[in-house]
Amino acid sequence: MEESLSFTKSIIEGLNLKETNPRQLSPLVLAYIGDCAYDLIIKTMIVSEGNTQVNKMNKQASSLVKAEAQSIMIGGLEALLTEDEEAIYKRGRNAKSYTSAKNASITDYRRATGFEALVGYLYLTNQFDRLVELVKIGLELDEMKTRKPTNRRTNEI
After folding, report:
1. 34 near 120, Cβ under 8 Å?
2. How far apart are CA 95 and CA 77, in angstroms?
3. Which residue of 17, 63, 131, 142 sits 20 to 30 Å from the alpha carbon of 80, by its own alpha carbon?
4. Cα–Cα distance, 125 to 117 (Å, whole number)
5. Which pLDDT tens digit goes with each residue over 10-40?
6. In this predicted model, what pLDDT tens digit does every residue of 101-134 receive, in sequence order?
7. Are 117 and 27 in contact, with CB atoms under 8 Å apart?
8. Does residue 147 carry a pLDDT above 80?
9. What is residue 60's predicted lDDT score, i.e. its pLDDT?
């Protein structure tokens, strides 16, 4: 039986890329890739609900990926993080960024950067089950339910 590769492993091997150690990457680099990974998870969730106007999908995604929403999520997840995950989150949160949020408070922006650093770390270390588990728990927080799209087939969140 052929061994299946992870998504990231397929990218690295398929494009002949050099593997990097995520622990050696700056927290802002982890946040950079984490932003994309989280966006892909949210868009996958929205697309799975079926066809609708793309601008409506984008509006739903935007409400879940903005700094304020990520700050709410990490606030609800902090107590569930392992010691290692908490350290990655704090490195991202405390990193000196030379950009600022357009539509978020400094606190939300920093917490969101920490969240994205954690997502990036979990993505690059192929901890997909843990990543999805944390996102699912975060989306089920009461504060997030008003942002989360309703399953149009079952009217459930």
Report:
1. yes
2. 20
3. 63
4. 12
5. 888 889 999 889 999 999 999 999 999 999 9
6. 778 888 999 999 999 999 999 999 999 999 999 9
7. yes
8. no
9. 92
CA distance linking residue 145 with residue 157, whole number of Å: 7
Q: How far apart are CA 57 and CA 81, in angstroms?
A: 30
CA nearest to 27, candidates 123, 80, 91: 91
> DSSP character for 148?
S
Which of helix, strand or coil describes residue 19? coil
Question: Do 135 and 41 contact (CB within 8 A), yes or no?
Answer: yes
Contact 78, 86 (CB under 8 A): yes
Is 129 a known active-site residue? no
Mind spelling out the 3-state secondary structure of 52-104?
CCHHHHHHHHHHHHCHHHHHHHHHHHHHHCCHHHHHHHHHHHHCCCCCCCCCC
pTM of the model: 0.86
Report the DSSP beta bridge partners of residue 151: 156
Q: What is the pLDDT of residues 58-78, one digit of tens each?
A: 999 999 999 999 999 999 999
* Cβ(117)–Cβ(95) below 8 Å: yes
The catalytic residue among 35, 84, 129, 142 is 35
* H helix or E strand, kind and range, residue 111: helix 106-124
